Amino acid sequence: MRWLDPGATAPWAAFSIEGVEAALEETPRREIRVRVAADAEVEALWPRLGRIGRIAVVFAGFRDGRGFSLGQMLRERGFAGELVASGELIPDHAPMLARCGFDAVDPPLGASQQDWTRALESFSAAYQPAADGAVTVWAQREAARKTAEAQKLAAELNAKYRDASAKEIVRAAVARFPGRIAVLSSFGTEAAVGLHIVAGVDRDTPVLFLDTDRHFVPTLEYRDRLTQHLGLSDLRVLEPKNAAEADPRGDLWRTDPDACCSLRKVAPLAEVAPQFDALITGRKRFHGGSRLRLPVFEAVGAQIRVNPLANWSAEAIEAHFEAYDLPRHPLTQGGYRSVGCWPCTQPSSDEENIRAGRWKGLEKSECGIHMPSRWAAEQARRAS
Ligand code: SF4
Fold first, then answer.
1. Rounded to the nearest 10 degrees, what angle do helices 314-324 and 191-201 cross at?
2. From CA 303, how far away is CA 276, in angstroms rounded?
3. Is 260 in the pocket of ligand 1 (CB under 6 A)?
4. I need a labelling partner for 77 at 20 to 30 A (CA). Which of 185, 304, 365, 374 fits?
5. Pairing mode, if any, of strands 181-184 and 278-280?
6. What is the pLDDT of residue 237?
7. Quick one: which atom of ligand 1 is closest to the CA of 253?
């Protein structure tokens, strides 16, 4: 949190709609500084928030919590300018000010910056939801409890079905989680096999497709063709929210691929995750990397992932394509042995690992939707 010179907000315009309107007439957008009391009636500000650069909220007394509420409300309403806390403040306020979205403090005369810095660093646990989206302690405990339950269930199901056929595994999973199970598919080069098996058990099983807005056009065409071919009746296309704001230049895949995958894959899936207790995936051990020890049933956070093809080989996949004359992904012919988003996918040779063309040249090998730590964190954040 930025530390202003003591009394820095004193000359700022006190809040009045007329004053704000007059200032907006004269001053370039986002240079307006408004000073509002913590108990001010601020509804009239909402339509103007995008044009105000800085707001100082004046706390009337150190036991008066209304300034925190106002700060959080301003952030929730979309105020993106600088939010300054001013007035009767003490260092103990620092962590809560930060959590409620304040960027800076206009300290009372005589305040010690050292005391404020120490206070800001002294709390690591969050007990109340706030504008910073930090996961509360309660949500962390609940997420840990649900994860432990899912791990126990996954172990039981593994013991029972680890050597069963893919169809038996899918059938058992659909029966175990009626109405609460879906298939997750990227409609990649091997997707037809898993989807064919699911369609053979229950064609109405929801199929979730994460539309990152970065897929190859042939993937989208293949998705529709394969869905129709297999008679799958419930394709659900999940799109990222706020992608234009979070990735305004559209190049997050280049500057921060983990953030890009979080935005375009992890978050959209987490959004619908509460609707499902289990997801069927098409991952296999022969894909290598973190998939080498892939179990048939696994707990990813509080959710069960069902991997009926975990122990299938590349040859078994090929044989299934042949046996059922399944349509191929059009890019297979171009040397794409595994297909994801176009910026992060390249062809690979037969000598390489099948996923060698994904995020080539980077340490990254997974997008995060199957990673327990990232998934659990996202779930807990949403439950907060
Ligand atoms: Fe973004 Fe690449 Fe991840 Fe797709 S695979 S979401 S483009 S980083």
1. 60
2. 8
3. yes
4. 374
5. parallel
6. 98
7. 8
